[in-house]
Write a structure and sequence with these properties.
This protein has helices spanning about 5-10, 10-20, 25-30, 35-40, 50-60, 65-70, 75-85, 90-105, 110-120, 120-130, 135-145, 150-160, 165-180, 185-195, 200-205, 230-245, 250-270, 285-300, 310-320, 320-330, 335-345, 365-380, 385-390, 395-400, 410-425, 425-440, 445-450; strands at about 210-215, 220, 450-455, 465. It is mainly α. Strand 1 (about 210-215) and strand 2 (about 220) form a beta hairpin.
Length: about 475
């Protein structure tokens, strides 16, 4: 096949594109030296440039011979000249070129090294500044692939380097948070950077203003405001943990950093203003608060209680005041909506948690439920947490969450789960609940006012709500 035929015959180009869509077709084209012939062309005509890039992309999709030929024939330099030329390339050209690089990088360490050497850092940074989701997605594919498998560790360290690599990630998050993203490559990349490796806090801090202080433990970031980009990052990480927990290894640093951010957000959010929407609310501080709770809930849910590494992680959170903090959040809130409405019908009862002017309200719909869900998951088969909850007088507080709340969908279900986990296999807690029920006046009038009471099933040891007969 002559080179000039490939340049000028649109019909030939279309037939090659069609053939390149199947593994068998790619193998035959590799045997014919098609990729080498394309790369030997002095230039690609502008009106067929996109077709040539898509053909090269297809040829390098899982076909080792073509992937090798691409590197050996100087493919990275040729593509860089197109994507990073003096005149900005159209988004569809950038997308096809990055998809090609991603397919090549999947071939092995030598291929990833060649792509990385040509584009890091300036090339990747220039592409990251293109505010198009169609460009951001394949760029994340290239970066994630280059930072995976053998050799990926040192490239990941470079990508998270303060001067050269970190600006690339900051631009990617800015693009994704403003223009959007449609594929999962961003999530894979950020979960690798933030959850599995110790770069989350640096990246999060650089996405917004913060005061930096130095103490005996090192650098400490103090927040007075959060940004949309920070909230977006936490939202992406929360989605990763919810949808793909089995694919992610959670680092101890990440869990503790999220707890620090939760504490900071709780001091910034206005708990005197009742939220009218669920996450995302559009308020960065509120969204940071909510996504931090969601992440901690999933950390507690998907960790294996029988694993020593898991216990180290949970122990670290507990040592940092995790449980006390969550119970204090619940204690400071006004009662659930159903309880507030029922209190006026409860007479001659001593109410442990009266509504006062100082009671806080939920800053978004679902806040109370999220706090209860974190506690409930943390309680699961962890006697230490069960006992500490009792010692912190948290049993009556959790019993009060077993109700319907119009501002917190599924609060009753999460409340029942939390109480079940609180009592399961713990005789001391079961006795404490039984004693509460025998007290006069009723210790938890919120539940009694609904015509319900808590019973402990003698066979299963689990708590349940039943009608008062």
């Amino acid at each position: 096949m002559a080179d000039d035929e490939m340049v000028f015959s649109g019909e030939t180009l279309e037939s090659l594109l069609e053939a390149s869509k199947t593994p068998e077709g790619r193998w035959h084209l590799a045997s014919a030296g098609t990729l080498d012939a394309i790369l030997r062309l002095p230039s690609f005509p502008p009106h067929t440039l996109l077709h040539y890039l898509r053909l090269l992309r297809n040829l390098c999709a899982g076909e080792a011979a073509n992937q090798d030929s691409f590197i050996e024939s100087g493919g990275p330099d040729r593509i860089a000249a197109i994507l990073l030329g003096p005149r900005p390339a159209p988004p569809e050209v950038l997308r096809a070129g990055l998809q090609l690089l991603g397919n090549v990088a999947l071939a092995g360490e030598a291929h990833r090294s060649a792509v990385w050497a040509r584009f890091f850092p300036s090339g990747f940074l220039e592409l990251a500044r293109v505010r198009e989701p169609g460009v951001c997605d394949p760029l994340c594919m290239v970066l994630d692939t280059c930072c995976s498998s053998d050799g990926g560790r040192w490239r990941l360290e470079e990508l998270c380097g303060f001067e050269k690599g970190l600006p690339i990630l900051l631009e990617i998050i800015t693009t994704a948070s403003t223009a959007g993203h449609h594929e999962e490559w961003l999530e894979w990349l950020l979960s690798k950077v933030c959850i599995e490796d110790p770069y989350f806090f640096l990246l999060f801090s650089k996405l917004g203003p913060s005061n930096v202080s130095h103490n005996s433990s090192g650098v400490e970031y103090q927040y007075t405001v959060f940004t949309n980009e920070q909230a977006f990052l936490l939202g992406v990480l929360s989605k990763c943990l919810t949808e793909r927990p089995e694919d992610i290894t959670i680092s101890n640093d990440f869990a503790l950093d999220i707890l620090k951010i939760l504490k900071a957000a709780s001091t910034i959010v206005d708990f005197n203003s009742r939220g009218s929407s669920a996450l995302p609310t559009g308020s960065p501080a509120i969204d940071v608060l909510g996504y931090s709770l969601a992440i901690l809930r999933d950390i507690c849910a998907w960790e294996n209680p029988t694993s020593p590494a898991t216990e180290t992680l949970i122990d670290s959170l507990l040592s940092a005041g995790f449980l006390e903090l969550l119970l204090s959040y619940l204690h400071q809130l006004e009662p659930p909506s159903t309880v507030r409405k029922s209190i006026i019908h409860v007479k001659d009862q001593i109410i442990q948690q009266p509504i006062t002017d100082s009671s806080k309200v939920c800053p978004y719909k679902g806040y109370r439920r999220d706090v209860v869900s974190v506690i409930g998951n943390c309680l699961h088969r962890r006697k230490q947490v069960q006992d500490e909850t009792r010692l912190l007088n948290g049993i009556p507080l959790l019993l009060q969450q077993c109700v319907v709340d119009e501002d917190n969908p599924f609060l009753r279900e999460w409340g029942l789960l939390a109480v079940r986990n609180l009592l399961e296999g713990n005789e001391e807690n079961q006795c404490a609940v039984a004693q509460l029920e025998l007290q006069e006046p009723v210790t938890s009038p919120e539940i009694a006012g609904l015509g319900l009471k808590v019973e402990v099933d003698k066979e299963s040891g689990r708590a349940k709500l039943v009608n008062i007969s």
